Amino acid sequence: MGTVAELVRRQWGDHRPGLRDEHTTLTHHQVAAGAAARAALLTELMPDRPGREPHLGLLLDNTPEYPLWLGAAALTGAAVAGINPTRRGAELARDIRHTDCRVLVTQRAHLPLLDGLELPGLRVLVTDTEAYAALLAPYEHATPDDIAARPLRPVRPDSRFLLTFTSGSTGAPKAALCSQGRLAAAGASLVRQFGVGADDTHYICMPMFHGNAVIADWAPALSAGAGIALRARFSASRFLPDVRRFGATYFTYVGRAVQYLLATPETPDDRDHALRLGFGTEAGAVDAARFEARYGARLVEGYGSSEGGASVQRTPDTPAGAIGRAAPGDDLAVLDPATHRECPPARFSPAGVLLNADEAVGELVNRGRSAFEGYWRNPAAEAARVRAEGFWTGDLFYRDPEGFLYFAGRTDDRLRVDSENLAAAMIEHILARWDRAAGVAVYAIPDPVAGDRVMAAVALRPGTAFDPAAFADFLAAQGDLGTKMPPTFVRVVPELPLTATNKVHRVALRRTALTTTDPVWWRPAPTGPYEPFGPAARTALRAQYERRHRPFPGEGEAEQGPGAGAG
Is 69 within 8 Å of 20 (Cβ atoms)? Predict the structure, then answer.
């Protein structure tokens, strides 16, 4: 097993284009030199001291400074905490303090976020300033070999390198640990899987403070010696122009980003580019097919937790809708979270409809070896993940008789309707077929009596309007939509609220549930028509909740219902 530092040093002497954005082009050699200069500065700013961790925080957009500081940390044995710039106040301060950052690198646009925060002893560097350039200048002739001779900490495969916060869409984030060896191995694995080469260009448009961009995009580019092109923040309108400008061949995504790309106006030259592959999660079979048909580039759905506890790899014989099989060395099982017993295999109708979702869907557990390296100073979270049976991923899956695994959502996204367990992701994938929908999110709200009701937020395609009768007809025509799956409530939103990692922010949707000012339609009877959820309906339904002393969804503790605890 190698190290990230070795991969950074390998760029020295390579004068091909290595790192680009709208304003900057650096060769691979310049990337290695820039990393060495920052590593030399880092050794001066935070010398190794007993009881003090060599942790560096990056509060940056996807600018060239981000990969340069990743390289610097790798060379000198420091660890990087990616700080989410959409967090504010006490939450932002908590992330910085929790990860024991001694130095924080940011940019002028994010500097106001730090105003008034109590961060004693923190050294802040602001990259786009003259003071920063002057601070770096004395180290511009440093080489990777210079740093190797006197690192902050000895660099080994097990050296702590990343403290990656989980997305935060379901509660307080946890900082998952990743060593240099694990990241280097992950990059090499993706190079082998996708045939990435030195002539490829990886387009990084997902935020680099999250594992998707660093583990699945930056690391394989570094491993293969491929070029990297950056977009400061994801932009659907700039995606194709960037891909063409940089000659991008590979990118990573999450499902919502794909939906926004598909919602852009089609043009005759949508296939005029070099892009061949996208790798990511939660696009769904419908949107993946739409993307390939429109852009001519294949989307490969994968699965790997930020923690490294389990991974699923696609094989050539993977059936439509499935993610793949267990990666080599993993012993993956789908277990019932209540009984810890293995769930029965999925049974399908001739049309491919899952017939036994209630018993087949369970939590994915890795009973074999796990690459999980822990959470930073959070033993309770570690104990919830690592139990007697193995590593519990927190994700719902089902498995077919041949052993192929199908993603069904987060355990926090499970709904219980009329004593039947449902997975939000499965319902979303069906609703996404509606030709008027640009994006769909499904989530639980408490039923006034017991269990949950299904609520869906729908963002419409440009130029369309919500037609309740057309939507009801669409639902009736879906052969794999179970009788408990149709949403009781449909909220029409201008766009879906997203976390900074482009995942749907279900907590935000549940927080306003039935008190939202967005238009809401509802089905008072399970098979009846959809009607406007107006003041009279709201008053009558509120009375049902009050009679049973249950909070009205969107008020008080409504989001803590049986299946609506988080999301």
Answer: no
